[in-house]
Design goal:
Distance between the termini: 52 Å
Helix content: 40-55%
Oligomer: single chain
Order of helices and strands: HEEHEEEHHHHH
Radius of gyration: 24 Å
Strand content: 15-25%
Structural class: alpha+beta
Number of helices: 7
Length: about 230
């Protein structure tokens, strides 16, 4: 039986919060690539604080490894400053490789710090490895198409209109879609893109397409019926 005393006692909710970060850092690791080491610490047990890692082999850390002295120092500083923000700084690996590092606190109930995300960028990573992330080959990486665009709108009305106009253009250029089915197909595509989750999207789309909102609702109901 272990005699190690917990640094803090986590609540059930706080355990769930930390566990939710595990998938997040794995996805972040896929996105950033092999030049980044990402370590997720739980502060419940400082002797075995690492609960998830990406590229932990850089520093020789695995799940169950203890917290580092620098992480402890950063934690003390974060508590002293009562800061919920990340601390970024230059660091060095065991082999002397310059690192660009960041320590991000994770807060739980009553805003107390319950964990840390520590990110190290290894500056000696080959440029070819960094560029390789622009051509994802992993089977679990979701690639919608080779030239996906994202709308960075100032407000929801602008977002809805931008997406509708692009969808409208695509539909109009598709000769397999008949004239009478164009609005139906536009609504179908907007539905599957989640646009109707936005407040007042039905009214906005109906106005832009110059059709009644009841027509838009009818098409949405039919799409929902098809999903059952």
């Amino acid at each position: 039986m272990s005699n190690e005393k917990p640094y803090i006692k986590l609540t059930k909710t706080e355990h769930l919060i930390l566990n939710s970060y595990k998938k997040m850092i794995l996805g972040l690791g896929d996105y950033l690539g092999e030049g980044y080491e990402i370590i997720l610490h739980s502060l419940e047990n400082l002797q075995h604080s690492v609960i998830e890692n990406v590229n932990g082999h850089y520093s020789g850390r695995k799940n169950g490894a203890p917290i580092t002295d620098l992480a402890l120092s950063m934690l003390s500083q974060l508590k002293k400053d009562q800061s919920p923000f990340a601390a970024c700084y230059m660091n060095h690996s065991k082999k002397g490789v310059p690192l660009r590092s960041c320590t991000i606190p994770i807060t739980g109930e009553k805003d107390r710090i319950i964990g840390l995300i520590c990110i190290n960028f290894y500056t000696d990573i080959p440029l070819s490895s960094l560029l390789a992330k622009f051509q994802p080959e992993l089977p679990h990486v979701l690639v919608t198409n080779n030239s996906a665009t994202e709308n960075f709108a100032d407000n929801t009305d602008e977002l809805i209109e931008n997406v509708l106009r692009k969808t409208q253009q695509q539909v109009f250029l598709d000769s397999t879609i008949s004239l009478q089915n164009r609005n139906k197909e536009i609504i179908n595509q907007l539905y599957h893109r989640g646009i109707f989750n936005m407040k007042d999207a039905v009214v906005k789309v109906a106005s832009l397409l110059q059709i009644s909102k009841n027509t838009v609702y009818m098409h949405i109901r039919n799409l929902k019926e098809q999903e059952k």
